Amino acid sequence: MRHTVAESPTANTGAMDAWLQSRANVRERRGLTRRAGASGCEDAGTMLDLASNDYLGLSRDSRLTAAAVAAVEQFGSGARASRVVTGTLPAHEFLEEKLCTLTGAASALVFSSGYLANLGILGSLGGPGTLLILDAHVHASLLDAARLSRSPVVTVSHSDLEDVERALKSRSQPRAVVVVESLYSVLGDSANLMELAALCAMYDAWLLVDEAHGIGVAGSGRGAVHAAGLAGAPHVVVTATLSKALGAQGGAVLGSAALRDHLVNTARPFIFDTALAPASAAAAARAAQIIAAEPELATRLQDNAATLADLCGIGRSQGAVQSIPMATADDAVAAAARLRAAGVLVGCFRPPSVPDGVSRLRLTARADLTHGQMVHAARLIRAVLQEQPARNLEHGGMSRNGNNI
């Protein structure tokens, strides 16, 4: 039987359109609507940016932009193919070399984003014979990777070593991967990497550490894994983003040469994705060189973070991001809007990015900001919070212990 196409290509989309509108209405009602329009560009030079992930201020460093321009002139604007076809360029190999030099890793493999690096590593290590043990507060990319890996998954209480050991000890699978972040940007705490690595060695498991918020920040910029003396440990795997402290774009998996070879042959986000653009690769490589040569950048970042936390009267986070808990998502959004009107951009964590009850303002203390800028920002933040409903003060804002929940 011959089937005819409806006269109007949109004639049968009414139900889907209605569903999309209903979901939009729910988000609006709950105060969860997000918009991806350009922001901040029109305010360049006038707004104090405490919202971005540019921890060391390298995204606008002339040395990175010069490296990016040179790469475009030499290799073109794109890699043109997957790394396993013709997409691997000298810029990618140079970046992997410099990442190893910075972190002490034996080998590195670059992906086109940190998200894809996490998908790639767990997809390649996972499967029915591998138990994934995830800390309750790991990033969404790791949660998605675990779901896609076809692995059995256990979620353990946040930073609970006993819970991790129970999961390792009782497993029936021949392989296991414990998945944590080195620094948790929402709660502001860090993983006990030495104890976790010891547990994994005892129970013949891998430890996967997401250093998205650690490299460039912890351990004189070389990362928390390096600071813990675990760089190059054969059972410790690191994932990283190149879009935060390194001021560029992309992601990487750092580990043994054997692991790199396994990823090249099995990681779908690597095999089936066009390689990272050469400009981003070159910029990230230059950033890795700068961070290794200038540990004072990480020191300046830590000093600014301590100043901001102290002047805002909040508990000090160990990372670049300082945060102030808010009672509700609406309160967080309102405070962020008032600060923007006052000339300060701050981040706003709220569901579904974080669980209910964890809404908070996100303050990034960058290395390229001055002490005076920290003082100015803290004064405005305190003034805005004092205008907020009293429940926020009870919930943790303006409290010495309010950064930990």
From TrEMBL:
Keywords: Biotin biosynthesis, Pyridoxal phosphate, Transferase. One of its GO terms (biological process) is biotin biosynthetic process. InterPro entries: Aminotrans_II_pyridoxalP_BS, Aminotransferase_I/II_large, AON_synthase_class-II, PyrdxlP-dep_Trfase, PyrdxlP-dep_Trfase_major, PyrdxlP-dep_Trfase_small. Residues 47-379 form the Aminotransferase class I/classII large domain. It is an enzyme of class 2 (transferase). It comes from the Bacteria. PANTHER family: 8-AMINO-7-OXONONANOATE SYNTHASE, CLASS II AMINOTRANSFERASE/8-AMINO-7-OXONONANOATE SYNTHASE. Homodimer. This is 8-amino-7-oxononanoate synthase. It comes from Arthrobacter alpinus.
